[in-house]
Design goal:
Length: about 130
C-alpha cells in the first residue's frame, strides 16, 4: 500500500474528529433533553440548551466553520502535488489545534481557547500559502 501524504492522512483522521464532536454534542443534548426527545421527531420549540450541551453545540458549529477550508486545502494540495513543506505543517497545526480546542471549549476556558483557535487558523493559512 502506498503511503499517503500527511495532509491526506489528517483529512481521514479529521473525519474521525468530526464524528467524535457530533457524538459529543448529541450526548450532551440528549442528556439534557432526554432520550424521548432524541428519538422523537423534534417538532415544536425545543427548550434552550444548558451549559454543556450549549458548549458542545457551539464547539461543533465552530469546527464546521473551518472544516470545509481544511478539506478543500488538503485535497487541493494533494491534487496539485504540493503536499509537504509548510502545507503539511499547517495541516498538522490545524488538526492538533482542533483536538486541543474541544476540551478547552467544553470546560469554558477563555483566552487559551481563543489562542488555540488562532493557531488552527494559522494552520489553514500555511496550507493556503503552500497551495497558492
Amino acid at each position: 500500500m502506498t503511503s499517503l501524504p500527511l495532509e491526506l492522512t489528517l483529512l481521514g483522521w479529521s473525519v474521525v474528529l468530526l464524528v467524535v464532536q457530533i457524538m459529543l454534542q448529541g450526548h450532551f443534548v440528549t442528556r439534557e433533553r432526554g432520550c424521548d426527545w432524541n428519538a422523537g421527531p423534534r417538532d415544536g420549540e425545543a427548550k434552550p440548551l444548558g451549559t454543556m450541551a450549549g458548549r458542545a453545540t457551539r464547539n461543533l458549529a465552530n469546527f464546521q466553520e473551518t472544516y470545509p477550508a481544511f478539506v478543500a486545502l488538503a485535497l487541493g494540495l494533494a491534487v496539485t502535488g504540493r503536499t509537504g513543506g509548510i502545507g503539511a505543517w499547517g495541516a498538522g497545526l490545524w488538526f492538533a489545534a482542533r483536538i486541543v480546542y474541544v476540551p478547552l471549549y467544553l470546560k469554558g476556558v477563555p483566552y487559551v481557547r481563543s489562542l488555540v483557535w488562532a493557531l488552527s487558523m494559522l494552520g489553514l493559512l500555511l496550507m493556503l500559502i503552500r497551495f497558492l
